[in-house]
Amino acid sequence: MKEKIIQVESLTGGYDGSIVLKNVTLDVYKGEVLVIVGKSGCGKSTIMRYFLGLQKPYSGRVLFDGTDIWSCPAALNESRKRWGVLFQSGALLGNYTVIENVMLPLKEFTSLTMAEMMDVALSKLEVVGLEHAAFENPLEISGGMQKRAGLARAMVLDPEVLFFDEPSAGLDPVTSAELDNSILSVNRSLGTTLIIVTHELASIFAISDRVVMLDPEEHGIIASGTARDLADSSEDPRVRAFFGRKIGE
Amino acid sequence: MNGEIAHNGDRIRISGRFSVKDLEDVTTSLEGNSARHLVLDFSNCQSIDGCIAVRIWSIAEAKNAKGASLEFRGMNPDIEAIFNTFKAIDDRPALPVQKHTLLYNFEDIGDKVLATWDTVYGLAIFTAKAFKALFSGKVRGSITAYYMEQSGVMAIPIVITLNWLMGVVLGYQAGYQMSQFGGELFMPALLAYSICWEIGPMMTAVLVAGRSGSAFAAEIGTMKVRQEVDALEVMGFNLYGYIVTPKMIALFVVMPLLITAANFAGMAGGLAAGGIFLKMPAVVYIAEVRKALIPFDLYWGVVKGFFYSTIISVTGSYMGMRVRGGPAAVGRATTSAVVVSIFLVILVDALLSLLFIHIRPGLLL
What we know:
The complex is a heterodimer. Chain A is of the alpha/beta class. Chain A has 2 domains: about 1-80 and about 160-180 and about 190-250, Rossmann fold (3-Layer(aba) Sandwich); about 90-160, no CATH class. Chain A has helices spanning about 45-50, 75-80, 100-110, 115-125, 145-155, 175-190, 200-205, 225-235, 235-245, and strands at about 5-15, 20-30, 35-40, 60-65, 65-70, 85, 160-165, 195, 210-215, 220-225. In chain A, the strands form 2 sheets. In chain A, strands 6-7-8-3-9-10 form a 6-stranded mixed beta sheet, with helices on both faces. Chain A has a 4-stranded antiparallel beta sheet with strand order 2-1-4-5, covered by helices on one side. The model of chain A has no long low-confidence stretch (mean pLDDT about 85). Chain B is of the alpha/beta class. Chain B folds into 2 domains: about 5-90, Transcription Regulator spoIIAA; about 120-360, no CATH class. Chain B has helices at about 25-30, 50-65, 75-90, 100-105, 110-135, 140-150, 155-180, 185-225, 230-235, 240-275, 280-290, 295-320, 325-355, 360-365; strands at about 5-10, 10-20, 35-40, 45-50, 70-75. In chain B, β2, α1 (about 25-30) and β3 (about 35-40) form a beta-alpha-beta unit. The termini of chain B are far apart. The mean pLDDT of chain B is about 85. Classes of the chains: A alpha/beta, B alpha/beta. Chains A and B meet through α3 and α4 of A and α1, α2, α3 and α13 of B.
C-alpha cells in the first residue's frame, strides 16, 4: 500500500473570511507526481499556500508525514526543512549570485564548509544545466534560467517533497519541456514527491502520475485520476472542457 | 528506516537512508576512526543525499592528503551516481571576494566622485525636464489631489506635533538662559524669529522628505521594476508629465501651508513654555512676537516651501526613475531620495539664508 506523505483533511479556507476551498480532503502519496489544475480563481495557489503553511485554514488540518503542521511552531519549521518550493518567478534573491542563491539553504540548515557547499550547489546546478551561469546575477539571466536556478535551490537539500507553482508559466515550449525533464529526473532519480500547480496541458500529460482538478463554483475537487483517464473518459463537462481544448478553440 | 552506522575496527557499515540531518553523526564516525585504511561499506545503504555525499567525499580527500585512505564498497548505482557528480568537480571555481577593507574605501574615491557627478548632472537635467513638462503639460487634477492628501493632509498631525514640541523645547532653553541675566522678555522674539526663518521650514522639509520623498522613490522604483514605466512610455505618455509633475504640484500647494502651520505650532509651543516655565502671560508673549515679526517673516516660509517642494518631489522621482534591477534597488533608491533631499534642503536653506538675511533690515525701515 502506498504511503501517504501529505494529508489534507476537511480543509476550509480562503482570504479575509471569504471561502475559496470548502471541506477539501486530499492525500498525496510518497514518490508520486501530483498535478493540481483548474480555472483561474479555483484555489490552486491557495491550496498550495495551505500545503506550505503560509496560511492557517479556517477549519480542517494539513498533515505532513502524519504530523499536523499547525500543531505547534516547531512542527511547521521541521516540515519546512523537508520540502522545497519553486515559485512562479523563481524567487531568486537579486543581491546574490545564482550559486549563492542555491547555497542559501545549505548555509542556514547544515554545517557544511564553504567548499562542500559549493560542490553541492554546483552538482545541483549541473542537474538543471546551469553550472556555466553559477556566478551570474539572477536578474541578468533569462526567465527559464531563473526557474531552473530556483529548482536547483529548491532541491539542494534533497527534500522529500518539491512544490512547483506554475513552473512553465512564461516559458517557450522548448524551455518548458527542458524544465519538465529536469523536474521528472528529480522524481525518477531521488524518488521525490512532486506537487505541481500548472495550466500547461503538455506538461500535465508529460509528467503527472495523478491529476486533481479544482473548481471555483464547487470550492473544491471535482475530479481526480490520471491525465489520460480524465481527458478520455470523464463525463463532467468542466473536466472535458479543460482537457479537450484545442488550438483555435 | 533512517540511517544507522556500525563500527567494526577499520570497517564502517552504513545502513538505511541518510539525509542532511545525519550529517554530524556521519562526520563524527568517519573522522573519529583513525585507521590508516578505512573501509566504508554501503551494502545495506539505500540512499544518501548530496550533503552527506559531499561530506564523505571531503573526508576521503582529507585522509588521502594525510597518506591514509577511505575505500568505498557496495554502493548501489544511485549512490555511485551522486559520488560521481563530486568526482567531476575537480576545478572548483572560487567565490568572488567582496572588498570590505579600509583601503577599499580610498580606492573607491574616484568612482564615488564620478557617481556623485552623475547624480548631480542627472538631477539637474531631470529637474529641467520636469519643469518643462510642468509648464507645457496638462494638470492631472485627481492624481494631484491624491498626492496633496497623502503628502499634505496626512502630514498635518505629525508636522504640528513635532513643531509644537520644538517650540516648547526652544522656548524653555532660550528662556532659561536669558533669565540668568533678566532677559527672558526677549525669548518670544528670538523664538518666533528662529521658528519662522529656520526651524519651521527645516523641520517640515525633513518630515516631508522622510514621508513623501521616500514614498515617491519607492512608488516609481516599484513601477520601474514591474515595467509599468515602460508600459506608460510605449503608450505614448509623457513620463514627466504623468509621473513627476502631479507630485511637484501637490508639494507646491501643500508645503507652504504645512510650513505656515508648523510656524504657528512652533510659536504656540513657545507660548506654552513661556507660560509654564517663565510665568509669562500669554498677552505679553503675543505682544512681543508681534513686535518682533514682520509679515515677510511669515511669507519667507512660503518662499522656502517652493524651493523645498521642488527638491523633495524631483529628487524622490529621480531616484525612483533610476532604479535598475530588483527590490533591493528600490530600497537603495528610497534611502538615496531621503538623504539627497535632506542634504539639498539644508544646502539651499543655507544659501537662501545668506542671501536674504541682507534683505530683511531694508524691509524693517
